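quick one before i forget lol
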Amino acid sequence: MANQIEILMPLMGEGINEATLVKWLKKPGDKVSKAEPLLEVSTDKVDTEIPAPADGILVATLAKEGDVVLINTIIGHISSDGSISASVSTATTSASVASKTTSRAQVKPAPAQASSIRPATLALVPSSSVRSSPLVRKIARDLNINLGYVPGSGLHGRITKIDLDGYIASGAHHRQAAAHAGNSVASGLAHANAFAPPEALGKSPRVQTQIIDGVESLEKNPVRREKMTKMRRLIAEHMVESVRVSPHVTTVFEIDLNRVFEIREKHRAAFEAREGFKLTYTPFFIHAAVEAIKQHPIVNVSLDGDDILWKEDINVGCAVALGNGLIVPVIKKAQDLNLTGIARRLNDLASRARNKKLLPEDVQGGSFSITNPGGFGSLTSNPIINQPQVAILGIGAVVKRPVVIDDAITIRPMMLISLTFDHRVVDGEGGATYLATLKKILENYSELPL
């Protein structure tokens, strides 16, 4: 029998637990090579091609185009010894059956997801003792699952995403809901919600429209109804969840960018001739932000329950506007890069983001985010934190205007810069001192070799 290798839906970024299978680039019976593009997937963060995990022949596609699939779910098989035998026809039949029934990850979950699950065990752990990530808690909340029933395989019994997926796959959450249904009207509603599809939970409130002369209208204003795209819907859910979880506070500083202007003007021509792309102001902001984080690491943490997770690396997510939404590719280990290194990484990521060539790992692991609405003329912003981070930097437009310097009026390039932070872990003083340090770095920028 052919050696079967599973094709799994990969992790597509922090906080993303599902992806849409856009297109299979191969069909059962086709030869594939390791790292060759095999399928296209889409999330709210990235549209990308997923490579084949091994050389061989594609013998099964268990999810169809358009399906929304949970990460770490088996979506197909490859025969690694190159043998097709009778498996292709079987795979095609399986794929056909899957195509009729799959709507949200109803394909076979990976065995590892249920390895630590004991379906018959429904012993309740006190809620104060439960350890889990924000993503796990969100999924449990959406499906009305009491995490006290879920065995955890992580450190100190921490419940991982795999633990929860396995618990759901075992059907134990149905028994949990059934065990408590009927105690009251509230418990009956909770039981019903446990079986509701995730997309039916947490929708925006519906408005009351009317049909006037055959045209749908809202308060007598004709409207055209259009479904949100997958990316826009997931962005909306992510933003609502962030505001619900984190108490957002924003502080704003004004910065004189004269020093940065001088350095950029001095080196821009030589830089572009050498690197092949323009030196913009954004790499200066990112480099300075990273240097400030080194002095104030509290803005580079995550919160897990009442535990603060101090991160070794500074991985900066840089928001890139797309025609149909927003994507946040990540500059990894930014603490080890100089200005030129950051400019190269940023140019590469932004170019691939706009051409839909980002890989899943390009949007994973961010620890701090920067958004630059100033590029569109916005003077300041109050951005929403990208969970599970605790801070996001907003860059305003650079505007030349008269200011007072040493009791004299002069024209300077000025900019407003904002920090929105999670007040659960960052105090007002912490946010202000971080921006004060960033201001000092930018206004006294060192002319390092470019």
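fyi Residues 112-200 form one domain.
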